[in-house]
Write a structure and sequence with these properties.
By secondary structure, the protein is of the alpha/beta class. It has 2 domains: 263 residues, Vaccinia Virus protein VP39 (Rossmann fold); 90 residues, no CATH class. It is 35% helix and 24% strand. The strands form 3 sheets. It has an 11-stranded mixed sheet, sandwiched between helices. Strands 4-5 form a two-stranded antiparallel ribbon. Strands 11-12 form a two-stranded antiparallel ribbon. A hairpin with a 2-residue loop joins β4 and β5. It is globular.
């Protein structure tokens, strides 16, 4: 299977170039309302937002910012397929405007907006981002009662458009079976609490640093493997530095990345050079972790009933038998806005080698 990936630089509030009901999964993280680093961006979208902040009118600024995001969610209602998923990474905000400190609940505001449309809210995930900075506590420190709880998590909101997805044809069923997760991954990933490290920003462009808050590759990689199958179309309407697109490439999904700021283009293309290495290292890590898990499983419970039909390693559940694992062999860039990715079957010799072998792909201009 080969996959295609397209960059689109446009206003995310108008996704008219994307066909109706053509998207299987959305994984994204929008600008967070009431986080100061995004004030200027929201003010560009609506000058009344800048005025509200200048006047220390936090409630008005909060509602106006979300009104701009609502325009994006309305576009998603049109382009997401029936039974498609939308995963939104968002954090709440705390802020002092004038003499008033308060919480701005971004996650609940987005849930309210999405469920007014045709989306059904599913159980969400808390992404824990612990900070051990000694200055993280706000307020009066050791003295009650003027200190404030520190926010150390973000939310991954999960929505589905309508009812459960059905796989009717043999081809659809085969693709779904090939996209299976390991039994132990299912148990870990479908938990409502994730501990993931944040992303250190390495952008050289100060303007881009001000507008980037990239989430970890692992976050979008998990979501794509949990809520789509190989060959599906994944969209990120706030692409930023490209993490969702890279995760889609690693997972044999197609993708479209939409970004408002065209200054990110060179950064995305530069980062593409590491995609094959990152994706293939993650695949080999999954295999090695599974091998270690099965070694322990066999010691405790004996040989399992099933083996993977493609690579022959033992698995716990029957649904893992047709799981098909691939690595990136080559990524080709058309020089403008599209990438084509080719894959090859996982080589178990690399997994079982005593040396730390990593399959590497490359990026070629065509």
């Amino acid at each position: 299977m080969n996959t295609l990936h397209k960059l689109v630089f446009t206003d995310s509030r108008n996704l008219s170039t994307i066909e109706t009901e053509s998207i299987d999964l959305v994984v994204t993280s929008p600008p967070y309302p009431m986080i100061e680093m995004w004030d200027a961006l929201f003010a560009e979208l609506n000058s009344d937002i800048g005025s509200a902040i200048a006047e220390s009118d936090g409630k008005s600024a909060f509602n106006l910012m979300h009104a701009e995001l609502d325009k994006v969610w309305l576009e998603l209602e049109r382009i997401v397929r029936p039974s498609g998923f939308v995963c939104i990474n968002i954090g709440d905000a705390t802020r002092t405007l004038g003499d008033e400190f308060g919480l701005y609940s971004n996650h609940s505001r987005i849930i309210n907006s999405m469920t007014k449309m045709s989306f059904c809210a599913l159980p969400l995930i808390l992404w824990r981002k612990t900070t051990n900075a000694p200055t993280k506590f706000m307020g009066s420190g050791m003295l009650p009662a003027g200190a404030y709880v520190t926010l150390e998590h973000e939310y991954i909101l999960i929505f589905r458009k309508g009812g459960k997805r059905h796989f009717k044809t043999e081809e659809e069923k085969g693709c779904r079976n090939a996209s299976a997760l390991f039994w132990e991954e299912r148990n870990k990933w479908f938990s409502d609490l994730w501990d993931l490290s944040g992303v250190r920003q390495t952008l050289n462009n100060s303007k881009l640093r001000e507008r980037s808050a990239a989430y970890p590759f692992e976050l979008s990689y998990r979501l794509i493997n949990m809520y789509s199958v190989k060959g599906d179309m994944v969209l990120d309407p706030f692409l930023g530095t490209g993490t969702t697109m890279f995760s889609a490439m690693a997972s044999e999904r197609n993708s479209i990345g939409v970004e408002y700021d065209s200054d990110f283009k060179n950064t995305i293309i530069e980062n593409m050079g590491a995609v094959a290495r990152t994706a293939n290292q993650r695949m080999l890590q999954r295999l090695r972790e599974h091998q270690a898990f099965m070694d322990d499983y066999i010691k405790l419970k004996g040989e399992p009933k099933y083996k993977n039909n493609h690579l022959g390693f033992p698995v716990v559940a029957r649904q893992e038998r047709e799981m098909l694992l691939s690595t990136i062999a080559k990524c080709k860039f058309d020089g403008e806005s599209s990438f084509a990715v080719e894959y090859k079957k996982v080589d178990m010799a690399n997994l079982n080698s005593n040396s730390d072998v990593t399959i590497q792909g490359d990026v070629q201009a065509v």
